[in-house]
Predict the structure.
Amino acid sequence: SQELEQSPQSLIVQEGKNLTINCTSSKTLYGLYWYKQKYGEGLIFLMMLQKGGEEKSHEKITAKLDEKKQQSSLHITASQPSHAGIYLCGAGDPSNTGKLIFGQGTTLQVKP
Amino acid sequence: DTAVSQTPKYLVTQMGNDKSIKCEQNLGHDTMYWYKQDSKKFLKIMFSYNNKELIINETVPNRFSPKSPDKAHLNLHINSLELGDSAVYFCASSQGQGSHEQYFGPGTRLTVT
């Protein structure tokens, strides 16, 4: 079965600093999905990556999928307190069921 | 205006009791899901329904039974609650059966004492 490992597990950064979260899959990814969870709330979809080498950006967040489609990174530029939360990467199952397999999450704190 | 709503938000109950969590989505989506997030924040799929039909049924104890009266609702009933059932349960929905872009509810924190 597919497993996703995220690193680091937790991260504390000063406001304004850049940071990167990594997600490594045990198998080739059919699709990779980044979600964010704020404390006490549900997950919010951020971005989807499907093609090897693909890169997408939304505001100050950039996500990349490597050419081999086994690793993804999420980069935040000039972090703000609003970026704080838990970031989860999810692997899409190709079985057309919508099944997502999640990594264990990376908890991000941004100090003002 | 809440897209995916769950009730209750918090649920504290004793071992052996039976409880239900309700979920409703007003997005017009066809597919709904239940996820469990454990104390280590690990999130795992439990069930999914597409137009009231069961699609995903992961290795979940028989004490857990999802029910979908219509495509806008997916409830989760749990019998004979155990300490290990304590977790946050999330409902989600998506436009199509195979869509991984899912919209999550705020979660229900279940505590079994």
Q: What stands out?
A: The mean pLDDT of chain A is 94. Residues 34 and 89 of chain A are 5 Å apart (CA to CA).
